[in-house]
Structures are given as C-alpha cells and as structure tokens.
TrEMBL record:
Belongs to the fluoride channel Fluc/FEX (TC 1.A.43) family. It holds the Pfam family CRCB. Keywords: Cell membrane, Ion channel, Ion transport, Membrane, Metal-binding, Sodium, Transmembrane, Transmembrane helix, Transport. It catalyses: fluoride(in) = fluoride(out). It is a multi-pass membrane protein. The chain crosses the membrane at residues 62-85, 97-115, 135-156. Na(+) binds at residues 107, 110. It comes from the Bacteria. This is Fluoride-specific ion channel FluC. It is found in: Cell membrane.
Length: 165
C-alpha cells in the first residue's frame, strides 16, 4: 500500500482573515460565533477540571489533580490537533472542533497558572526541591504527554481514511 502524502500543516490558522457581510476584513479569532464556541468549551473544560479536583486528593501538600489535568490535557490536545491537521485545512467542522475542544475545553481544563501558584507554594511552604520538582516535572511530563498525543493522533487518518471530517 503506497504511503499517503503528508498534508501541509498550518502555521497559525487564527491569522486567517474572513470578510464580513459588509466587506470588512475580520480576523477569524474575532468572530463572535467562534468566541462563543471557545466560551462554551471553556465552561465545560473548567467544570471537568473542578470535577477532577473533587475526586483526586491533594497528598502531602501536592495537588495531584492539577498535575493530572495538565498532563491529560497536554496529551488530548496533542491527539486532537494532530488528528485535525492530518485530515485537512482548518475550516468548517475541523475549525469548530479545534476551537471547541482544543482552545475552549482544553484551555479551561488545563491550568498552568495554578501550576505556577502551586509550585511557588510548595517551594515556600514545603521545600524548594518539592516546588522545583513539581513545576519542572509537570512541564517535562507535559511535553512527553503532548509528544505521545501527537503520535497517537498521527494514526487517526490512516485508521479512518474513509471518514470525511
């Protein structure tokens, strides 16, 4: 079976400009419909993170729920963006899914501001080593999770080649 050609990957799909009905150019990221899609995804992502925080306890002062949310979010974002990029350009349903699930849901689910706050608190209240390990560990494992997610996402097109999305 011949290898499928790799699609050209987008650099930044939000730089695209659409024309309004009045003929005025408007960047895609400023369109009210897309902002609403991101908002809805963010609400559900934040609620999911809160649910995770209620289920996963903080042990020995280490906020494991935030750690898990950031790693799971990094993995899922890698899967989503790679799968969408391999299926084609950032238009229509693919753009809506990227904004709803990637920017919105994963943006609300992950929280690197809480990571920074928690690392600083651990650094000051427990020991500098704990704070550094927590912060650095989250970033290093986050990169690994994203890389693994991208790898998983790269198989989506080949598995579902007959499905148009």
């Amino acid at each position: 079976m011949p290898a499928l050609p790799e699609p050209e990957l987008p650099l930044d799909p939000d730089l695209e400009v659409d024309t309004t009905p009045a003929g005025t150019p408007r960047p895609v990221h400023l369109r009210p419909a897309f902002l609403g899609i991101v908002f809805v995804g963010g609400v559900f992502g934040t609620a999911a993170r809160e649910g995770l925080m209620l289920v996963v306890p903080t042990v020995a002062g280490i906020p494991w729920a935030i750690f898990l949310a950031n790693l799971l979010g990094a993995f899922l974002l890698g899967v989503l963006l790679e799968a969408l990029a391999r299926r084609g350009g950032d238009h229509g349903v693919r753009r809506t899914l990227r904004l709803l699930l990637g920017t919105g849901f994963m943006g609300g689910f992950t929280t690197y501001s809480a990571l920074a706050t928690d690392a600083a608190l651990l650094f000051g209240e427990q020991s500098p080593g704990t704070g550094i390990a927590y912060g650095l560990g989250t970033v290093v494992f986050g990169v690994a999770a994203t890389t693994f997610g991208i790898t998983v996402g790269s198989f989506v097109r080949r598995r579902h080649a007959g499905v148009a999305l």
